[in-house]
Amino acid sequence: MTQAYDILSQVFAARYSCRAYRPDPVPRADIAAIVDVARRSPSWCNAQPWQLVITSGGETDRFRHALRAQAEAGGHAPDLPFPKGYSGVYKDRRSICGWQLYGAVGIEKGDRAGSAAQMMRNFDLFGAPHVAIVTSPAELGPYGALDCGAFVTAFCIAAQSLGVATIPQAAIASFAPFVHDHFGIADDRLVLCAISFGYAEVDHPANAFRTDRAGVDEIVDWRG
Ligand SMILES: Cc1cc2nc3c(=O)[nH]c(=O)nc-3n(C[C@H](O)[C@H](O)[C@H](O)COP(=O)(O)O)c2cc1C
To answer: Which position among 25, 86, 97, 148 has the lowest Cβ density within 10 Å, counted as fewest Cβ atoms?
Structure first.
């Protein structure tokens, strides 16, 4: 293997979804450097459908407080339909990572108030000092979203390489009309997800577990 492969695989292995942050801001130049790498992501026809709103300081707090109020009021209305369901192995994996989180923060089976409170941490952006809202043109449909998914991964990996922790959050897209309104995002763009980011509070229990992955031979149906 090459040195580039080794470095890349180390950065991928070190990244995880961070659910507790220190308040310190990430320098603007570092945020720009992360986007500078992520913008090299491939996209169909090189359309580069991704656009970001990135908040810092008081703007993050203003969004966090308004989002929290919206989430408490309810009204699930994503621009992109959420998954219809998770069955079989997908249901199992979803359940395992959920229980990993609950186990780490001490929420026991049947503690509905505890699990709801942990879920609501999504809408405090897990205390992150920054959030990026990821949007795609509606006319590009699912392939625009596919391209933006690649961008989200590249953003998280580039951030990790600078010691910046991240968490992609579809939960925030649940309140798409509110997000459009809050940031003045045009109606011809889909709010896909958010990425909260900053420096990890490494000792926080919510950051104490790591998810597993299926092996190569479980993923690939080798032919020939
Ligand atoms: C598109 C996308 C949306 C996600 N939305 C949420 C979310 O709303 N809330 C959350 O806590 N985690 C969310 N996650 C994080 C996943 O739960 C996490 O990536 C997965 O469990 C694998 O764990 P890891 O990122 O720590 O490796 C999301 C991840 C992706 C890629």
So the answer is: 86
Does the beta carbon of 8 sit less than 6 angstroms from any atom of ligand 1?
Answer: no
**DSSP H or E run through 131:** strand 130-137
| Ligand 1 contact via 211 beta carbon (within 6 Å) | yes
Tell me if 111 is assigned to some domain: no
Residue span of the structural domain in which 8 resides:
3-82+124-208
Ligand 1 within 6 A of 169 CB?
yes
Using DSSP's 3-state secondary structure scheme, residue 55 falls into strand
pLDDT tens, residue by residue, 129-171: 999 999 999 999 999 999 999 999 999 999 999 999 999 999 9
Question: Given strand 51-55, what is the order of strands in its sheet?
Answer: 51-55, 130-137, 189-198, 165-169
Pick the residue whose CA is nearest to atom 12 on ligand 1. Answer: 169
Cβ-count burial 161-187 (b if 16+ within 10 Å, e if not)? beebbbbbbebbbbbbebbbebeebee
CA-to-CA separations, 75 to 61, 72, 79, 172, 174, in angstroms, rounded: 21, 9, 13, 12, 8
Q: Indicate whether residue 78 lines ligand 1 (CB < 6 A).
A: no
The total number of structural domains in the chain stands at 1
Q: Is the CB of 171 under 6 A from ligand 1?
A: yes
Entry pTM = 0.98
